[in-house]
TrEMBL record:
Gene Ontology MF terms in the entry: ATP binding; transmembrane-ephrin receptor activity
GO cellular component, one term: dendrite
One Pfam match: fn3
Positions in coiled-coil regions: none
Highest taxon, organism lineage: Eukaryota
Signal peptide (residue range): none
UniProt organism field: Micrurus corallinus (Brazilian coral snake)
Membrane topology (UniProt): Single-pass membrane protein
Protein's name in the database: Fibronectin type-III domain-containing protein
SMART domains: FN3
PROSITE patterns: FN3
Subcellular location: Membrane
Principal location: membrane
Length: 101
């Protein structure tokens, strides 16, 4: 019998949620965050997006920071303010869901 070798690459899908979000360092106007890659990347992760907002604003007004690494600094925060941070990963197929609040 003769066999032919065929190499196939399946399409990418949106990744699962990132996990293990940690605050590494908190200063008066900035915070350093880190997290773990999604358990199921479902492709090549090209970027992470951090969404953050003041807790009492309840997502009415939010900002985002993008990075390729599994850690980032978020700057220009207001001193003495409680913020909520959520992170999601991106592949060629789109964004996964945000990490839990």
């Amino acid at each position: 019998r003769l066999f032919a070798a065929v190499t196939v690459t399946t399409g990418q899908a949106a990744p699962s949620q990132v996990s293990g979000v940690m605050k590494e360092k908190v200063l008066q106007r900035s915070v350093e965050l880190s997290w773990q890659e999604p358990e199921h990347p479902n492709g090549v992760i090209t970027e992470y997006e951090i969404k953050y907002y003041e807790k009492d604003q309840r997502e009415r007004t939010y900002s985002t920071v993008k990075t390729r690494a599994t850690s980032a600094s978020v700057n220009n925060l207001k001193p003495g303010t409680v913020y909520v941070f959520q992170i999601r990963a991106f592949t060629a197929a789109g964004y996964g869901n945000y990490s839990p609040r």
